[in-house]
Amino acid sequence: MGLHADLREKLISDYGKLSPQMQKAARYILDHPNDVALRSMRALARAADVPPSTVTRLMTAIGVDTWQQFRDHYQNRLLDLPASYANRARETQNVSQDVDRDQHLLESIARTEIDNIDKAFGAELRGRTIDACAAIENARQVFVVGRGAAYPAAYQFAYAYRLFRDNVVLVDGRSGAFGDQLRGINRRDVMIAIGARPYIRDTVRAVDYARSQHCPVIAICDSDVAPIALDAMIKLIVSDKSQSFFQSFTAAVSLVQAIVALLVARGGQKALERIATAEEQLAAFDTYVEDPSPTRNS
C-alpha cells in the first residue's frame, strides 16, 4: 500500500477521535485530495473553512511532520492519475468564453456527469464492486435503503434485482412501516445504503440499526467518512458533483445498474430462468404496451 493510501486510511480510521474542526478538515481532504497537491496550506484551510492551525494539528494527529511532506504524497498520487483527467480539465479551461451560455452549460454538465461515472468505474472501485456482489450473493436477505434524492438508485436496484432473486427488501417506509421493514435483520443479511450530503436521517438510522444487529453494510455514498460509510464492510465512494444547485446521483444509479448486471452475469442459467419467469408474469398482467420493434437488451 502506498503512503498516500496509508494517510487516507489513517484519516478514516482516526476520524471519530478528531475534534469537530479537525473532522471538518479531514473530510475536506478526503473528498478533495487534489486540492492538497495543488493548493497552499492556507488556501486549503480556507476552502475547508477552518483555520490553518487546524490543518497543522490534523497533520500532527496522523503522524505527518510538515506540510511539504503531506503535500508530496498527494502530488505523487496526482501524477499517477490517468492523463485523460488532466486533458479534460485543460479542455474545459480552454472552452471559448463567447460560446452561447446555454450550450456551454450543457457541455459542462455533460462533462461533469461523464467524469462522475468514469470515477465510479475506475480501477480503485472495481475490486470493491466485485466484493459487494459476492456479499450480496451470499446474503440471506438484501435490505436496500436510500431516501430523498437517493431513492431512485435504491428503487432501481431493488426492482431489477427482484426480477431474478426474491430476497430483497426495499426499505422505503411506506405506510409508516420503516422500522417494520427492518425487522429480523441480522448478521446473515446485508444492507445496501445509498446517500450523499445532506444525509437523510432515516437512512442514517437504518444503517445504525443494521450495525446494532451486526448486519454488514455496503455504503454507496459521497465520502469515506459519511455517517452511512463509517464501519461499513464495503465503501463504494462515488462523486455527486453537479453543475446544478442539486447534487447528482447519476454515478450512484450507474453503479447499482452495474452491480445488477454483474450479479446476473454471475448467476448462470438459474438467473436467466428466473428473469424469463418474471417476464411471463408481467405479460400475464398485460404490463407493457405492445411494441412491434425488437426487444431491448435481448
TrEMBL record:
Transmembrane segment boundaries: none
Record carries keyword Ribosomal protein: no
Molecular functions (GO terms): carbohydrate derivative binding; DNA binding; DNA-binding transcription factor activity
Keywords: DNA-binding, Transcription, Transcription regulation
Domain HTH rpiR-type: 5-81
PROSITE patterns: HTH_RPIR (PS51071), SIS (PS51464)
UniProt xrefs under CDD domains: SIS_RpiR
Positions of the SIS domain: 132-274
Keyword Transcription: yes
Entry-linked Pfam families: HTH_6, SIS
GO biological process: carbohydrate derivative metabolic process
Domain of life: Bacteria
Gene3D superfamilies in UniProt: Glucose-6-phosphate isomerase like protein, domain 1, Winged helix-like DNA-binding domain superfamily/Winged helix DNA-binding domain
PANTHER family to which the protein is assigned, alphabetical: GLUCOKINASE (PTHR30514), RPIR-FAMILY TRANSCRIPTIONAL REGULATOR (PTHR30514:SF18)
Name of the protein described by the UniProt record: Transcriptional regulator
Organism: Thalassospira lohafexi
